[in-house]
Design a protein that fits this description.
With 97 residues, the protein is mainly beta. It contains 1 helix and 7 strands, in the order βββββαββ. β6 and β7 form a beta hairpin.
Length: 97
């Protein structure tokens, strides 16, 4: 399987991966942050063909695609708000309770 390397640069990224290049079947959702909240700004690698990825900088568009794929949407800005049921975000972007 191919691998996609993504570098957030100056924009926070909402990333959806799909099981096929037609992008009609959801596989996973990932965040990549440029500002240190959420996932670190360093490159992330996804074990998926680059043709099976959509990247969004706008949460509204990201949520619209998640909704179309019958997946839960994000009702808060994960790049500026600590997730519900999370006490602190560690340096790797993971929730610590």
């Amino acid at each position: 399987m191919a691998q996609a390397d993504i570098i957030p640069g100056s924009s926070n990224l909402y990333i959806i991966t799909y099981t096929n290049s037609e992008k009609n079947t959801f596989r996973s959702a990932t965040l990549a942050s440029s500002n240190g909240v959420g996932k670190p700004a360093s490159a992330i690698s996804l074990d998926v063909d680059p043709n099976q990825i959509n990247q969004y900088t706008d949460r509204v568009l990201y949520n619209a695609e998640l909704s179309d794929l019958k997946q839960p949407t994000v009702d808060y800005d994960p790049f500026s708000v600590i997730p519900p049921n999370c006490t602190i975000i560690d340096n790797d972007g993971d929730c610590e309770n």
